[in-house]
Design goal:
CATH superfamily of chain A: Farnesyl Diphosphate Synthase
Largest interface: A-B, 38 and 39 residues
Largest sheet of chain A: 2 strands, antiparallel
Structural class of chain A: mainly alpha
Strand order of the largest sheet of chain A: 1-2
Shape of chain A: globular
CATH topology of chain A: Farnesyl Diphosphate Synthase
Radius of gyration of chain A: 20 Å
CATH class of chain A: Mainly Alpha
Oligomer: homodimer
Order of helices and strands of chain A: HHHHEEHHHHHHHHHHHH
Helix content of chain A: over 70%
Strand content of chain A: under 5%
Number of strands of chain A: 2
Number of helices of chain A: 16
Chain lengths: 322, 322
């Protein structure tokens, strides 16, 4: 990645210090936070907060609390989503509810969300109202996205538009807010901050679409998780929805039958073959091109000397798992 | 109650307007909020915020957002605690997880906590940093108290001091913060705001100890829930812990045996008889007197013409269920 290593190091240092300063008791409330934050992760979102702040000539230290808040919030969603999905693993380690229990995961997730607000509260006073408002708005969007995602599991008709709307809330909103918060804290004009928001939404969409693709076509080792998981779980990803849109006759029947195929390998291979036959990957890449262009366009109007870093960021995001 | 009815009406109006303004979609995220807030409740905490603000000559409208935040936060804790306790009922109606499901209760609880912060964000700018800080600190205390409460369920040795510490976090902290926030927003001096905090802690402790007593000795109709619930669930209340502290010989053996008595009626009557034999109620009332005196003492130093209202509040709290 071309993203300055220094930002990532700053985030890691701050997260370590956050964990070190957690109260010892009640252990069951705070230990899951350190555990979750210690599982690693790319820390993309907080890095983006710092990067956006610096881009507009701001002092990075003013953006650190918001950056950490974003990372804590993201981890809070992972703890609670893992309960919802009954996911036993997170980054190849037991998820919080699997390692402790559901009640502990529920409560320590709650407390981690509050801890995120504790970080937000450390934002310089002049910017606090705007940052708090944006953080709240974003946090609600993420919850809405998660609820739509849960609804889609049992909803028979889900359109590509429904799906794109859902990921704009569940995934893209936090990317978008990370860049917008950084911009605000860096002293960007309202217009530039809004352009950063649009740019963030576009790369968030790109990120999620690519996630869907990597789950099916990525190399397991590079992606860091077993490929085909979405197929096995009948997850309504862009690929599956597109396949249902395009499939006709026998292909459609076969796809429907594969949803209840008990043999995981046969299911993954069967669905992949249909994806390839229907050119679903090409369609997804076309959709990604759309967001890629939107991202590049929103950069064009931004007035900041170092804005090239946004294009580097996009390239870096797109090189995941390859 | 002698507490001005106008405050309660103001709170009810604001809660109704909050529910009315909730987005329609996703329905599963927002409907549980209206449902929970519509179950009624005494709205003691938000009323206390307004009352404290007025007491120091502040404009009540400045305290309304914080008051609603406190009520939303309280309801968020109820939704999540009901999941934890697998409680099927809340105020004689199905709890949120029972009416919908656990995943919906988890997520709509999260969103309700965020909504509370959305209210906090509407606090006048000059007071926002202090109010946000106090709200965060309090929210964490409530989580810590809940975790200790969960731990005590399986912990063999729990002292009266452990118990009092737990309720100071789980129950008293929010009473305390409600009064302190109101005071700050009303323009109280730092010294008076701190006295309000101490007063709030004392009446919070009183409130919880009385709750423990009402659960055993209250009249079902007036208390609004089945009495004896704590006994049936072996809940480590002040009464049970005190009974274990005082019981000796055969009484201790009998008490221990009663914990695994399968017949609910026999269990409640048996434990009640032991409580009466050991004078546990008198001990609890002595403990309440201690907090009552502490409350009255902290009022003494407060400089506000209408401070008598705090004593009315205490009396009103103590007349519950009688």
């Amino acid at each position: 990645m071309n993203i300055p290593v220094a930002y990532r190091q700053e985030i890691e240092k701050e997260i370590k210090s956050f964990c070190k300063n957690l109260p010892a008791k009640p252990h069951e409330l705070y230990a899951p936070m350190s555990y979750m934050l210690g599982l690693g992760g790319k820390q993309l979102r907080p890095t983006m907060v710092l990067l956006a702040c610096k881009m507009f000539g701001g002092q990075v230290k003013n953006a650190v609390p918001a950056a950490i808040a974003v990372e804590l919030f993201h981890n809070f969603t992972l703890i609670h989503d893992d309960i919802t999905d009954a996911a036993p693993l997170r980054r190849n380690k037991p998820s919080v509810h699997a390692k402790w229990n559901t009640n502990i995961a529920l409560l320590s997730g709650d407390a981690l969300l509050i801890k995120a607000y504790e970080c937000i509260a450390k934002t310089p006073k002049a910017h606090l109202p705007a940052i708090l408002r944006l953080f709240n708005e974003t946090a609600l969007k993420v919850c809405e996205g998660q609820q739509f995602d849960m609804n889609y599991e049992t909803q028979s008709k889900v359109s590509i538009d429904d799906y794109l709307y859902m990921i704009s809330l569940k995934t893209a909103a936090l990317f978008s807010a990370s860049l917008e918060m950084g911009a605000i804290l860096g002293g960007a004009t309202g217009k530039d901050a809004r352009s950063m928001r649009v740019f963030g939404t576009s790369i968030g969409m790109l990120f999620q679409l690519q996630d869907d693709i990597l789950d099916v076509f990525g190399e397991q080792q590079k992606v860091g998780k077993q490929t085909g998981g979405d197929i096995i779980n009948n997850k309504k990803t862009y690929l599956l929805l597109k396949a249902f849109e395009l499939a006709k006759g026998n292909t459609l029947k076969e796809l429907q039958k594969l949803l209840s195929e008990p043999n995981a390998n046969r299911k993954v291979e069967g669905v992949k073959a249909i994806y390839e036959k229907l050119g679903v990957l090409k369609q997804a890449q076309k959709q990604m091109d759309f967001y890629h262009n939107a991202a590049v366009n929103s950069v064009a109007s931004i007035k900041a000397p170092e804005k090239k870093i946004l294009l580097d960021l996009t390239t870096a995001l797109l090189s995941r798992g390859n």
